[in-house]
Amino acid sequence: MREADDARAAPTTRSAPVIRPAPRLRAALFDLDGTMADSDPMHFVVFDELLRRTGVLRAPLTHEYFKENIAGGSNADIFARLYPDKSAEEHEAMAEAKEASFREALAREALQPAKGLRALLDACDARGVKTVVVTNAPRANAEAMLTQLGLREYFGDERLVIGTECARSKPNPDPYLEGLRRCGVSDAPEACVAFEDSPAGARAAVAANIPTVGILSSQSEETLARVGCCMCVDDFASPVLLEALGM
């Protein structure tokens, strides 16, 4: 999978950008899975069942395998890596079945927004900081998650960027470049901030020249710093983060 290969590539050597506090902060761009909500455990369970049923794994899925081969990737890349002998059409069908299973699991769970997220969104709104979701999740998943989290009011269709609907998905910068465009700040990525929990996603945001904050929901601080995150925090209620944002 390209995301996993990129995540294990050489450390980023460019200097970490500095987050601009409000009122100079113009936009905040949010990854969804694992960043705005801890949905990775549900993906983990669905992939565990799939990989064992189809013979890719004989033992239970490990978190290390999940982080290195699945987390943050697009379905096209994930399934091409896991099932190299199958066709693109078969990959697509398997991905659709997997995502349907995820949405069924989502409907049974009481998924909650990450700590401090709603307060940060309200603070951004009050200060005129534009917000957008940038995700590799399929549109049906993203819309279902935002609805269940009670966050749809913050993110209409124009504020939801789906990676697979862009020319290239994460870890390429295209989804974040589209997010900047929709916020009207394509000329000032350095005046924005992105939030990511995976190396693939962080690489995409950093490649778009956006100062990027790593959310430590599954990856280590060392891993996210290595791919260019200028700050790593446990959640959106972090005093260090709020001070940096001027919130």
TrEMBL record:
CDD domains listed in its UniProt record: HAD_BPGM-like
Keyword set, alphabetical order: Carbohydrate metabolism, Magnesium, Metal-binding
Requisite cofactors: Mg(2+)
Record-linked InterPro entries: Beta-PGM-like, HAD-like_sf, HAD-SF_hydro_IA, HAD_sf, PGP-like_dom2
A Pfam family of this chain: Hydrolase
GO terms for MF: catalytic activity; metal ion binding
TM helices/strands, residue ranges: none
Phosphoprotein as UniProt keyword: no
Protein name: Uncharacterized protein
